[in-house]
Automatic annotation (TrEMBL):
CDD domains: TST_Repeat_1 (cd01448). Residues 20-138, 168-233 form the Rhodanese domain. GO terms for molecular function: thiosulfate-cyanide sulfurtransferase activity. Pfam families: Rhodanese (PF00581). This is Thiosulfate/3-mercaptopyruvate sulfurtransferase. The keyword Transmembrane does not apply. The keyword Transferase applies. It comes from the Bacteria. Residues 288-306 have a biased composition (Basic and acidic residues). It comes from Methylovirgula ligni. Residues 262-306 are annotated as: Disordered. Keywords: Pyruvate, Repeat, Transferase.
């Protein structure tokens, strides 16, 4: 069972019709920074999509890294995902409560990095689902563990050395997802100790500019194409995504990578094609992500900002 056309997004009406499909697994990826006094797991227990289990990006990560939400080893990812009742042959839908689905996009990318392409994000997330008065439940799901195989795909990841080398070669287009004032260096990020500005040669596409403010869903194809073109992003060039926050609440230390993966998702799904459930061909199907984000080097005064 797989999503048609390798779609990275599914619509609420499609999911409502397929909730009972065998082999379909739904993950509630809701996450909040500690400063918000909100807890994704608590919210999951209060309301979630039927059959959904909670995926905690604070738990499925590299525990040895000083940076938050770094990728775990393939073996650790496979073990933790298997405990959520997900098998290698399953079709996965991820969602969260945030507009644009930052955490859900992060989880979507993680599955693809570890070789599982049969995964999609619910367009508009729980917010759109709730506005449409679709079913939800409160009882936590306790799945039976299953076997999941993970194989790391390095083509979807860029490290600090890769980004440093790209400063000279400019082989890949760098896209910064923060708000314009932060990109321009006229406004501090949440952690004021970080240097202002942006990676040399990068272009700015704030995540919020790609969303319908009413529904939180992705804008139509024409609007997306116009925004990418205005930023100078060419569909024929390779792009990398330096992770960074899209709003004051997207604290870079913890949410930066989720915001970048959200833009990575938007570039993969570049608009509707007259079909109510699916999206058309990817604009940048294999655009990699700078996993460490600008947080890793913005505190290192001896290194050029990357």
């Amino acid at each position: 069972m797989s999503f048609s056309d390798n779609s990275a997004l599914v619509q609420t009406d499609w999911l409502a019709e397929h909730l009972a499909d065998p082999g379909l697994r739904i993950l509630d990826c809701t996450w909040h920074h500690v400063s918000t006094n909100l807890d994704g797991r608590t919210q999951y227990r209060g309301r979630h999509l039927p059959g959904a289990v909670h995926f905690d990006i604070d738990h499925v990560c590299d525990p040895s890294s000083p940076l938050p939400h770094m990728l775990p080893s393939p073996a650790d990812f496979a073990k933790k995902v298997g405990l959520l009742g997900i098998g290698s042959e399953d079709r996965i839908v991820v969602y969260d409560r945030a507009s644009g689905g930052s955490a859900a996009a992060r989880v979507w990318w993680m599955f693809r990095v570890f070789g599982h392409e049969n995964v999609a994000v619910l367009d508009g997330g729980l917010s759109k689902w709730s506005k449409e008065k679709l079913p939800a439940e409160m009882t936590p799901v306790r799945p039976e563990p299953r076997a999941f195989e993970a194989a790391y795909n390095s083509a979807l990841v860029r490290g600090l050395d890769d980004m440093s080398a790209n400063l000279a070669t400019r082989a890949e287009q760098i896209v910064d997802v923060r708000e314009a004032a932060q990109f321009a260096g006229v406004k501090d990020d949440v952690f004021a100790s970080q240097r202002r500005g942006h990676i040399p040669g990068s272009v700015n596409v704030p995540c919020r500019d790609l969303l319908d403010p009413a529904s939180g869903a992705l804008l139509p194809n024409e609007a997306l194409a116009a925004r990418f073109a205005a930023a100078g992003i060419a569909s024929t060039s390779r792009s990398s995504w330096p992770a960074a926050p899209a709003s004051p609440r997207d604290l870079r230390r913890s949410r930066s990578i989720s915001s970048a993966t959200r833009l990575r998702l938007f570039m993969t799904e570049d608009g509707r094609n007259g079909h109510p459930h699916r999206r058309r061909r990817p604009l940048q199907p294999e655009a990699p992500l700078h996993e460490h984000s600008t947080f890793a080097t913005s505190h290192d005064r001896g290194r050029q900002r990357i």
